Amino acid sequence: MARFKPRLATRALILHEDRLLLVNAYPGARLGLWCAPGGGCEAGQSLPENLAREVHEETGLTIAVGPPVLVNEFHDPETGFHQIDLFFRCTLTSGDLDDAWLDPEGVVTERRFFSRRELAAGHVRFKPDSLPDAAWGAAAALYDPLEVILK
């Protein structure tokens, strides 16, 4: 079985007009699974910088990144793949969803805002299960921004 170091990713919880932005989780919308926009972190960029970049790549939207609200982990026991997602409450600062927008990595092909009622109805397949509570909840975690190491 292959073993991986955990992959770190950031995800945006963007509420607009009381609706949560979600994107397809796999290329070509395979599995019909939806998730919050975001993706893998690059070394040397802060978590908010990574998140703003990923959201723009996937959606064409510009955001302001707020506080973290959820840490979620998932893994594939067969391959050893392990990912840690850090979810941040975000605010849309500019842009509109455009079906013609192309994700440069070709993963995100669908993007849509969902109401809490739509997510609760069980007709929308999304992960993690705690997504609605994190998006519409009031609690926030503490976060110390990226700092240069002291030598």
List keywords for this structure.
151 residues, alpha+beta, Nucleoside Triphosphate Pyrophosphohydrolase, eight-stranded mixed β-sheet, 37% strand
What does this structure look like?
There is one protein chain. The protein is an alpha+beta fold and 151 residues long. It has a single domain, classed as Nucleoside Triphosphate Pyrophosphohydrolase (Alpha-Beta Complex), CATH 3.90.79. Strands 1, 2, 3, 4, 5, 6, 7 and 8 form an 8-stranded mixed sheet that branches. A hairpin with a 2-residue loop joins strand 1 and strand 2. The mean pLDDT is 90.
The CATH homologous superfamily is named Nucleoside Triphosphate Pyrophosphohydrolase
Broad shape: globular
Judging by the overall fold, what is the CATH architecture? Alpha-Beta Complex
Q: What gyration radius follows from the Cα positions, in whole Å? A: 15 Å
Number of domains: 1
According to DSSP, the number of beta strands is 8
Instruction: Please state the structural category.
Output: alpha+beta
